[in-house]
């Protein structure tokens, strides 16, 4: 009876010793990994991250907007008369804009000047 109790105690001490060694090994590896991560993060140019974040946010917003617009247009397309009326409305709007802005040479020049100023403003 005493021998079996002694064996259990010795086994428990061996397990405790091996678990403490494993914990020490783990903590060493953990500190090495954290050290490497910190070194890598120190090399990053953080001034560029804001610009990348803004660009990815805009891209995400555009994707969500396109999904919503597609859903709305698919729903409208299921109605029998509405798609044809929307096409007609688009033709009327384009025709009206063209009549108001492209009928004379002066109006066409004004439109081209406006396009040139917008191009210089946004592309330069």
TrEMBL record:
Residue stretches of biased makeup (Basic and acidic residues): 1-12
Main localization of the protein described in the UniProt heading: membrane
Residue intervals of the Cyanobacterial aminoacyl-tRNA synthetase CAAD domain: 44-123
InterPro entries: CAAD_dom (IPR025564), CURT1 (IPR033344)
Subcellular location: Membrane
Superkingdom classification of source: Bacteria
Region (Disordered): 1-24
UniProt membrane topology term: Multi-pass membrane protein
Pfam families referenced in this protein's UniProt entry, alphabetically: CAAD (PF14159)
PANTHER family for the chain: PROTEIN CURVATURE THYLAKOID 1A, CHLOROPLASTIC, PTHR33222
Listed name of the protein: Cyanobacterial aminoacyl-tRNA synthetase CAAD domain-containing protein
Species in which this protein is naturally found: Aphanothece cf. minutissima CCALA 015
């Amino acid at each position: 009876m005493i021998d079996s109790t002694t064996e259990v105690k010795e086994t428990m001490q061996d397990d405790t010793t091996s678990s403490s060694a494993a914990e020490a090994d783990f903590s060493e590896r953990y500190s090495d990994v954290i050290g490497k991560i910190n070194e890598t993060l120190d090399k990053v140019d953080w001034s560029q991250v804001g610009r990348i974040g803004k660009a990815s946010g805009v891209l995400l917003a555009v994707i969500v907007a396109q999904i919503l617009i597609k859903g709305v247009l698919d729903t409208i397309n299921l109605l029998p008369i509405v798609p044809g009326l929307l096409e007609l409305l688009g033709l009327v709007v384009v025709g009206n804009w063209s009549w108001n802005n492209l009928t004379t040479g002066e109006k066409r020049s004004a439109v081209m000047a406006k396009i040139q100023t917008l191009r210089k403003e946004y592309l330069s």
